[in-house]
Amino acid sequence: GQVAVESPSGGSRLTHGQTITLQLSKGGAPHQLPPDFRGKSPTDVTNQLQSWQISIAKTVQVYSTGVPTGAVVGTNPALGQTVYGGDSIDLRVSRGPAPVTVPGDLVNQSQQAATTELGKLGLKVTPVERYDSTVAAGNVVRSHPTAGTQAHKGDTVTLVVSKGPKPKPVPNVVGDNIDSAIKTINSAGFH
Questions:
Q1: Which of 143, 123, 150, 149 lies closest to 65, judged by CA?
Q2: C-alpha to C-alpha distances, 155 to 88, 95, 119, nearest whole angstrom
Q3: pLDDT tens for each residue of 94-111
């Protein structure tokens, strides 16, 4: 028979003595696995493969942020490789983005530090500023979804970021005597 698949593929670099795996053709017509299988439904891909006399050995579920849940991510042998009628291949089907847990240590972190931490998990960030008298300005008050919640890579986490305490209006003491003015200013929380 003829060699149908070579792994690693021709042109790859190996050190002397390493193994090259060859898969022999069962004698059917050659077909290149088209790159546009990516993103198609497993049914459509299976129908095309069956028309070439190629069967599915197994279907493997994999996480993917770039391919919708339930669509084909790839094959083994890889898309672009040549297979022959009578061969069987594996389909890799998207489970959607990988799950991640929203970290629990975001509160009181700076907005920048929290954004960096979430970014490393593959999460996007939308900051929303609110007045808060207990958390320093520029630091995270809370997140949505909250700490410990399951999210998926590519999801957006809203960070509520402190603007500091809400400013208070300065009382108008023009025309008051000095003792009364000081008392009014102090009772409003000013010095």
A1: 123
A2: 36, 15, 10
A3: 999 989 999 989 999 999
